[in-house]
Amino acid sequence: MQRILIVEDDKTIAMGIEYSLKQEGFETYICHDASSCKKIIETTSFMLIILDVSLPDGNGFELCRLIRSKSSTPVIFLTACDDEVNVVMGLDMGADDYITKPFRIRELTSRIKSVLRRYNIHNNGKALINIGDITINPTEAKVFKDHQEIFLTALEYKLLLTLANHEGKVLSRNQILEGIWDVAGDYVNDNTLTVYIKRLREKIEDDPQNPQIIKTIRGLGYRVGE
């Protein structure tokens, strides 16, 4: 069963999301505060977590940090605030998408399916990709650095895979955007791509300030490898 956790203090909104997701065949769990969320993620695994930013005893950003310290479970933020700083902050913490209230339930379910599709991207039968001390296993959608697994969000993984599949070639920002996003996404644009590049470098580079894997080719784009 595909389990989704809904962390939302507004019971009406939570029930509406739960009803719609059940109609789509998902098994749903609801938490109305941060403390109950912390308890359930210790004992139950989920394929995706929907996090309200404002909670009575905490906030979604804190929960996202906790979730990311334990797993790479996809996270979608719900919030009444569409301030760009909050959007970028959420994405920079490892969220996979960010949707503002009020929203249409159909839009949310579309975003959920989009994120889940990205997490299930597999190049069946493709050999391991090695770039320096980084190894990508496309069959399992996993990335390792010095044989230690690195937890990447779906977009981070897809970004790395897009660059790695064109090793030695310079990709423009537009080419990268075309490779990592789909019709359901609103927040990966030319500006937020910089956030993803920065976050990915922080995870895979020995020295993110002097990147040796993902290189910036000034005025042209980015390149992996020579």
From TrEMBL:
<dbReference type="GO" id="GO:0032993">
    <property type="term" value="C:protein-DNA complex"/>
</dbReference>
<dbReference type="InterPro" id="IPR016032">
    <property type="entry name" value="Sig_transdc_resp-reg_C-effctor"/>
</dbReference>
<comment type="function">
    <text>May play the central regulatory role in sporulation. It may be an element of the effector pathway responsible for the activation of sporulation genes in response to nutritional stress. Spo0A may act in concert with spo0H (a sigma factor) to control the expression of some genes that are critical to the sporulation process.</text>
</comment>
<feature type="DNA-binding region" description="OmpR/PhoB-type">
    <location>
        <begin position="126"/>
        <end position="226"/>
    </location>
</feature>
<protein>
    <recommendedName>
        <fullName>Stage 0 sporulation protein A homolog</fullName>
    </recommendedName>
</protein>
<dbReference type="GO" id="GO:0000156">
    <property type="term" value="F:phosphorelay response regulator activity"/>
</dbReference>
<feature type="modified residue" description="4-aspartylphosphate">
    <location>
        <position position="52"/>
    </location>
</feature>
<keyword id="KW-0805">Transcription regulation</keyword>
<keyword id="KW-0238">DNA-binding</keyword>
<dbReference type="GO" id="GO:0006355">
    <property type="term" value="P:regulation of DNA-templated transcription"/>
</dbReference>
<feature type="domain" description="Response regulatory">
    <location>
        <begin position="3"/>
        <end position="116"/>
    </location>
</feature>
<dbReference type="GO" id="GO:0000976">
    <property type="term" value="F:transcription cis-regulatory region binding"/>
</dbReference>
<keyword id="KW-0804">Transcription</keyword>
<dbReference type="Pfam" id="PF00072">
    <property type="entry name" value="Response_reg"/>
</dbReference>
<keyword id="KW-0597">Phosphoprotein</keyword>
<dbReference type="GO" id="GO:0005829">
    <property type="term" value="C:cytosol"/>
</dbReference>
<keyword id="KW-0902">Two-component regulatory system</keyword>
<dbReference type="InterPro" id="IPR036388">
    <property type="entry name" value="WH-like_DNA-bd_sf"/>
</dbReference>
<feature type="domain" description="OmpR/PhoB-type">
    <location>
        <begin position="126"/>
        <end position="226"/>
    </location>
</feature>
<dbReference type="InterPro" id="IPR039420">
    <property type="entry name" value="WalR-like"/>
</dbReference>
<dbReference type="InterPro" id="IPR001789">
    <property type="entry name" value="Sig_transdc_resp-reg_receiver"/>
</dbReference>
<dbReference type="InterPro" id="IPR001867">
    <property type="entry name" value="OmpR/PhoB-type_DNA-bd"/>
</dbReference>
<dbReference type="Pfam" id="PF00486">
    <property type="entry name" value="Trans_reg_C"/>
</dbReference>
<dbReference type="InterPro" id="IPR011006">
    <property type="entry name" value="CheY-like_superfamily"/>
</dbReference>
